[in-house]
Specification:
heterodimer; A: 298 residues; alpha+beta; Alpha-Beta Plaits; 2 domains; 14-stranded mixed β-sheet; two-stranded antiparallel sheet; B: 273 residues; mainly beta; two-stranded parallel ribbon; 10% helix
């Protein structure tokens, strides 16, 4: 299958269940809300080293936020409920709480709720207070520009992580442009994130290494400089490869985001679009590239 | 299945409806409903003697009281679910100790509306009497949860002894609003008489216009509007008309009652003489 002259590999991305939370970060202006959300998403790039993957989930208008102020969605993923709970507390407490005029609310109603505000309230040193509105408890923590208000509990649901696209190109700047366009299209899919810097990963990894303490290492089959020394997957005309990793609230959302990314990426300079998998043995979600393009046409 | 009880203008005595719970009544046949015994005066009487019973399968699944419902006390007492609508006025103790469900009074309510309620939503579209959301007579603890909305005015000691929950008064309130408040939130969109927050330990009173607070309250500058925004946004979604200016400048904040703990707060948009 070719789209605009780009070969779509007959393969699939192998994705995994992940614990997910969605935050609604609000502030006095959209800029401040974005700033706080970005801070909370810092260094949450790959689960391999960060234990958490995070990304922005679109701006939220004042009439959709609990406090009627402009807001920004933020999605956080981790491999377990316990780890995600730890990251929620850490990131809200260290990044959102200090951000000027900010507030933080739960954006995912699920059965499993974990207490985050209920822990961070102790920062109030006894001056904290709570408000209960129709069964939902908010904590008010006094800070130097007023009060930091946050939900007592945040939902943790089951999302899907590890959706991916690998773009192979004959020209580095062209394939990078295509990857940026794909990442932009993925960002427009509600409920999906591409957690790497700018949404793009230049260092696809393989599990394991020749060194015993290294859990993941460079995927030599995709490194252009190693084509003469390894079992390469690159044809001679390939000069650069970029990977886009996609996490989402559901398999359908990840599939939609992958399709949007592929449509955006199929342009001059890109030779092939493929995806990473482990032969289907590890992840229960198999997202076939060609099937996704048929399901979600441009 | 919905049930409508049209109360006849027959008895000047208060009928005590504390045993009528919407979900249970809706599950009964018309004959069974008419045979239910309710306290009236010093004895009991069959409900069929006091009202006309109509059952309809409109899919709403609610109990409607209409007609001479102002002579009914304890409507929705200890209600634990379902929907109850009073298409008219309600007597005293409407929604007292209710824990869940939705109770709506389209007219006025008597004294002790929502007394000691601990869950659910009671919405009075007219005025309510004294001790709205307060404690039951002889008790010390007022509302411990739930939401009580009154579109109009309330009498004295609304929300006194309240422990948790939300009381919103669209009009004015009488004396000693939120006296001995332990926690919870009270909004008065109009004005309050003197004595608001007397002896309150924690919790919040948000008032449109108030006379000068009691001596146990200390000025604490302008209120931080953050939590207030959450409530105002919610009230807006409930289509409750908020006073002009409430979404603008933050109110003045006082902490108190410092004769007790000083952990409560009084937020006033306008101090009047």
């Amino acid at each position: 299958m070719y789209i605009h002259g780009v070969l779509i590999d007959d393969t699939f991305a192998e994705a995994f269940p992940m614990s997910v939370s969605r935050l609604i970060v609000t502030a006095d202006s959209p800029r401040l809300a974005l700033q706080a959300a970005q801070a909370a998403a810092g260094l949450a790039i790959s689960i391999i080293g960060c234990a958490c993957e995070a990304g922005l989930d679109g701006a939220i208008s004042p009439n959709e936020t609990p406090d009627g102020r402009p807001g920004h969605g933020l999605l956080l993923f981790s491999y377990s409920t316990e780890k995600l709970e730890e990251h929620l507390t850490l990131r809200i407490g260290q990044a959102i709480l200090p951000s000027a005029t900010s507030a933080c609310f739960n954006g995912l109603e699920t059965e499993k709720m974990v207490k985050v505000g209920g822990r961070l309230r102790y920062f109030g040193d006894g001056y904290q207070s709570s408000k209960m509105l129709e069964g939902r408890r908010f904590w008010r923590i006094p800070v130097a520009d007023g009060e930091f208000v946050l939900d007592e509990s945040f939902g943790i649901g089951q999302g899907v992580g590890g959706g991916n696209l690998i773009l192979l190109g004959s020209d580095r700047s062209a394939v990078l442009e295509a990857a940026e366009a794909a990442a932009a299209a993925i960002r427009l899919t509600p409920g999906a994130i591409a957690p790497f810097p700018g949404g793009i990963c230049r260092s696809p990894s393989k599990p394991g290494s020749r060194y015993k303490n290294v859990r993941a290492s460079t995927n030599d089959a995709f490194c252009p400089t190693l084509r003469s020394r390894t079992n390469t997957k690159l044809s001679p005309d390939i000069k650069a490869v970029y990977e886009i990793v996609i996490d989402g609230l559901s398999e359908e959302i990840v599939g939609r985001a992958m399709a949007a990314g592929m449509h955006a990426a199929c342009r001059a300079g890109v030779v092939q679009v493929t995806a990473g998998n482990y032969g289907g043995k590890w992840g229960p979600y198999h997202l076939y590239l060609r099937r996704l393009l048929e399901m979600y046409p441009a | 299945m919905s049930v409508q009880l049209d109360f006849l203008p027959r008895s000047p005595l208060l009928a005590d409806l504390r045993n009528l719970r919407p979900r249970e009544v809706c599950a009964l046949s018309g004959k069974e409903i008419e045979a239910l015994q309710v306290p009236l005066g010093i004895g009991d009487t069959a409900l069929g003697e006091l009202c006309r019973v109509t059952k309809s399968s409109d899919g709403k699944d609610e109990l409607v009281l209409a007609g001479n419902s102002a002579h009914c006390a304890y409507i929705g007492y200890r209600m634990d679910g379902g929907r109850l609508v009073v298409d008219g006025d309600a007597g005293p103790f409407v929604g007292a100790e209710m824990s869940a469900g939705s109770l709506q009074v389209l007219g006025n309510a008597g004294d002790c509306a929502g007394a000691a309620m601990n869950g659910g939503r009671l919405w009075i579209r007219g005025n309510a009497g004294d001790w709205c959301g307060a404690a039951q007579p002889g008790q010390s603890q007022g509302m411990t949860g739930g939401t009580l909305l009154v579109d109009g005015n309330v009498g004295k000691e609304a929300g006194s002894g309240m422990r948790r929950g939300l009381l919103v008064i669209g009009g004015d309130s009488g004396k000693f609003l939120g006296a001995h408040l332990l926690a919870g939130t009270i909004f008065v969109c109009g004005r309050t008489d003197e004595g608001a927050g007397l002896g309150m330990k924690r919790g919040s009173l948000v008032i449109g216009k108030s006379v000068c607070p009691l001596p146990g309250f200390r000025p604490a500058g302008e209120a931080d509007p953050e939590w207030l925004r959450i409530y105002l946004a919610w009230l807006g979604r409930m289509e409750l008309p908020l006073p002009h200016g409430w979404n603008g400048e933050p109110p003045d904040r006082f902490t108190g009652d410092h004769l007790v703990t000083g952990k409560g707060e009084l937020q006033v948009y306008e101090i009047i003489e």
